[in-house]
Write a structure and sequence with these properties.
The complex is a heterodimer of chains A (507) and B (330). Chain A is α/β, with parallel strands linked by helices and 507 residues long. Classes of the chains: A alpha/beta (507), B mainly alpha (330). The interface between A and B is large, with 43 and 35 residues.
Chain lengths: 507, 330
């Protein structure tokens, strides 16, 4: 029979996933033997969710899947792997102190009477390594000694052991250099020739053109296009990823944009943040957009002194004066505030009360000679609860019991009593329901009206276009463009977000 | 209607929190009562002046150490060196008195300074190199013990009754040492719940990165906790000297386990972020009653150690339940 008539290896029929909101809906997709299907889309479009469902990491909320003609509902990643459906996650899953061979065969070490058969382990490892072009390495090398590219190949090799029919690669080139990328591509082509069906997730459109036969574009959890790669142009794909324009903006009230309050010049840290410069004025909301891993969080941490910069200068005040920020403490003293992306891990004392959390860092106003003034602490908490409409039982309620949106308000509330002039928000509305999002936007507007300068990092482009006056786009560690309201469009912003990865490809 | 709910809402929440604290104290008091009743039934001699004076004598040493250890555990650390530091302080003091002819006051201050220095070393190394305090204090334990032997020539040094007044009962068998320990306890509880320093410690133990990003440098507070721990080990050394009238380089061997046990039995979390000096006080009473009671019923040393060890394990298991419940609500 002719190849095109062959039944698909994997077929998805109306697959959807809903957490508190739908993140994936009605996906119909077929995957064939010996093809590379590119899967692309913006941050949060549902790429990872879709692949996690296929690989058994999560069950779908609705819809059916078929694998080799049989209904497919893997109970776990392990079950999916046993059947030959595998996924290489973005984060490497290797044990650095163990050797390549041990990592490859961790779950099925060849043994005799409970003792590892080293010779057979080495032989098997050599075979597995040869499949991904690592034959020149010694299987006894500890994984920690390998470069990130080789580690990635080991991870892939591990997934090829045994029966592999479907292999999903999630942003495999995110950490690779040009040379390593080419080697990876050669192996992907080889696997395809062996008949493996590959799903290749990436936002580097040029990579997709080199590798894939078909390309699927996700937007807002919906599959908006599946087409032949040969017929797709880059411009068209960007358009598909972005969708319609949204020219609206939220009403932030009467405010005046004044003189510059923050100036960043040539800020650098390793590969993550490279030569970033910009300026933010009093009363202005400056958004920072970009793909995940573009260096946005790292930039904010540098500005806040949470990490040390290799080079560059931050100036604060009116007019901005250079300040040395070697620690968050100095940053706070100079009128900076950071509302971290990871509010549970870096922002809150989850097992403590709202009052204690709001008081954290406001001790100077709440104490005399080192002793806390409980009445003042309670009053402050009450004031913030009322002002920010935090839904809770009272200041003594434990923060861990609150919803995400209310937790975020507690973190923000901590800074509102201080004399901070510049506030850095990292993903302020992540994991927050829609109603609370608009509360937060209102709060941003209120701060801007008070003449503070706001920097807002968000992966939600529409959110930034809704609230910001200007948007800077980071791409691969660099600020690849700054757009104002009259000159931005989703296409242009997305294009800038991809810009930094293009040059890397040709390098 | 709206204003009523807003005005009333905080009250039940505050109520609930203080009820939980009260519940913990009542639970500990009940455990203590059960122990006392149990030993009274097992031994007719338990209700005697000698038993209670034994317990009352033990409490001040253990209590001041346990107060320090409560702070250390709250910031998520541990200090294993306290027993050795106690011996070091006593040894340094004995050398000052016997060899250099110092008076009791300067010699006492020297002992306290040595102990505080040892704690500062542990704290500074822990903080500067971000090493677990467990391992740093293990090293300091060995160094302090060695230094104690070095100073005393490995012999017990008799220093006379210069500090005996600390142990002499003033009224109803209550000694100045006991009063000092009580004062330390009360002050520590106030510091923990009412001072900025106490707030910082709880914050550091709960989420150090959050404290740092709130613009507070957590390092000085952390070092200070270990300094205070050392200082209190020095105070405990004075209490011991007041009874024994001799500096023994072997003093306080294994004491760290008793101290940690008392704190953990009191319910201070080994994971940091949660603890109370009042609960620790109950823990100290429970450990002391247990030790005295077991002696009274004629349990030999090995049996005592087995039972005490088991009690510690049970207390830690209970602690994990409490922690899980606290997180589970979140």
């Amino acid at each position: 029979m002719a190849a095109p008539l062959e039944s698909p290896v994997l077929a998805l029929d109306g697959v959807g996933k809903t957490y508190s909101q739908p993140v994936l809906a009605g996906v119909h997709l077929e995957l064939h033997r010996g093809e590379v299907l590119a899967l692309t889309g913006e941050n949060g479009a549902g790429k990872s969710t879709l692949s996690r469902i296929i690989a058994g990491l999560e069950p779908p909320s609705v819809g059916n899947m078929h694998f080799l003609g049989q209904p497919w509902a893997p109970a776990s990643r392990r079950a999916a792997e046993a059947a030959g459906v595998r996924m290489v996650l973005q984060e490497l899953n290797l044990l650095p102190t163990l050797s390549i061979a041990e990592n490859l065969f961790l779950e099925r070490l060849p043994q005799r009477l409970g003792w590892v058969n080293r010779r057979r382990l080495r032989e098997q490892a050599r075979d597995a390594m040869a499949r991904v072009g690592l034959e020149q390495l010694d299987p006894d090398t500890p994984v920690a000694h390998l470069g990130i590219g080789h580690q990635q190949m080991v991870e892939i090799a591990r997934n090829l052991i045994g029966d592999c029919r479907v292999l999903i690669l999630d942003e495999p080139t995110a950490m690779l250099t040009g040379h390593e990328v080419q080697r990876l591509f050669a192996q992907v082509q080889r696997l395809r020739a062996e008949g493996v069906a590959l799903v290749y997730i990436s936002h580097r459109l040029e990579e997709l053109a080199q590798l894939a036969q078909r390309v699927a574009v996700l937007r807002d959890g919906k599959l908006v296009s599946v087409q032949s790669m040969a017929l797709a142009s880059e411009a068209q794909l960007v358009k598909l990823m972005a969708g319609r324009e949204l020219g609206e903006r939220i009403d932030l009230g009467e405010r005046r944009i004044g003189a510059p309050l923050l100036r960043v010049e040539g800020l650098c840290r390793g590969q993550k943040v490279r030569d970033v410069s910009f300026e933010v004025r009093a009363g202005e909301l400056f958004g920072i957009s970009g793909l995940i891993g573009a260096g946005r969080t790292e930039l904010l941490r540098l500005m806040f002194g949470a990490d040390r910069a290799d080079a560059g200068r931050v100036s604060l005040g009116s007019p901005p004066q250079p300040v040395r920020l070697r620690s968050p403490r100095e940053a706070v003293r100079n009128g900076l505030a950071l509302i971290s992306e990871d509010r549970k891990g870096e922002g809150l004392l989850l097992t403590q009360s709202i009052a204690v959390n709001i008081a954290l860092g406001n001790f100077a106003e709440l104490s005399r000679a080192g002793w806390m003034n409980n009445a003042r602490e309670q009053a402050l908490a009450q004031r913030q609860i009322a002002a920010m409409r935090i839904r809770c039982a009272g200041p003594a309620q434990m923060v861990g019991e609150l919803s995400g949106g209310n937790q975020q308000k507690v973190v923000i509330g901590r800074w509102l009593e201080r004399q901070c002039q510049v506030l850095l928000f990292d993903e302020p509305t992540r994991g927050i329901d829609v109603g609370a999002k608009f509360d937060i936007y209102g709060l941003l507007g209120q701060l801007a009206r008070q003449g503070k300068a706001l920097v807002i990092v968000s992966s939600d482009l529409r959110e930034l276009m809704l609230v910001c006056d200007r948007i800077g786009v980071m791409s691969n560690g660099r600020l690849s463009g700054i757009f104002d309201r009259d000159h931005w469009s989703q296409d242009a912003l997305l294009d800038a977000a991809l810009a930094g990865y293009r040059t890397k490809e040709t390098a | 209607m709206k204003t009523t709910t807003a005005g009333q809402a905080p009250a039940p929440a505050r109520h609930r929190a203080s009820l939980a604290v009260l519940g913990t104290y009542l639970g500990l008091a009940a455990a203590l009562l059960i122990l006392i009743v149990l030993f009274s039934c097992l031994s007719s001699h338990f209700w005697s002046y000698s038993t209670f004076s034994t317990i009352a004598n033990q409490i001040p040493d253990l209590m001041v150490l346990a107060v320090g250890m409560t702070f250390v555990l709250i910031i998520g650390g541990i200090d294993l060196s306290v027993g050795s530091v106690l011996a070091l302080a006593a040894s340094a003091l004995s050398v000052a008195i016997l060899s250099w002819g110092w008076g009791p006051l300067p010699a006492g201050l020297l002992g306290l300074a040595c102990a505080a220095l040892a704690g500062t070393v542990t704290g500074s190394i822990t903080v500067a190199w971000r090493i677990p305090s467990f391992i740093v204090s293990l090293g300091v334990l060995e160094m302090a013990r060695g230094a104690a032997y070095q100073l005393t020539g490995s012999r017990t040094a008799y220093i006379g009754d210069a500090y005996a007044w600390l142990a002499d009962p003033l009224l109803w068998g209550i000694s100045p040492a006991f009063l000092i320990a009580l004062a330390v306890t009360v002050l520590a509880q106030l510091v923990l719940t009412r001072s900025v320093f106490g707030r910082q410690l709880i914050g550091i133990g709960t989420n150090e990165e959050a404290v740092r990003l709130a613009g507070i440098d957590p390092r000085p507070s952390k070092v200070l906790v270990f300094t205070v721990m050392g200082l209190l080990a020095g105070v405990a050394a004075l209490f011991q000297l007041s009874r024994l009238e001799a500096a023994d380089p072997n003093a306080g061997a294994g004491l760290e386990l008793q101290v940690i046990a008392a704190v953990v039995i009191g319910g201070t979390s080994l994971m940091g972020g949660r603890g109370s000096v009042v609960s620790t006080f109950f823990g100290v009473l429970i450990i002391s009653v247990l030790a005295a009671g077991l002696a009274q019923v004629g349990a030999n040393e090995p049996t005592k150690r087995i039972i005490t060890g088991a009690v510690i394990v049970i207390a830690v298991v209970l602690d994990t339940y409490r922690t899980r419940r606290a997180r589970g609500r979140g």
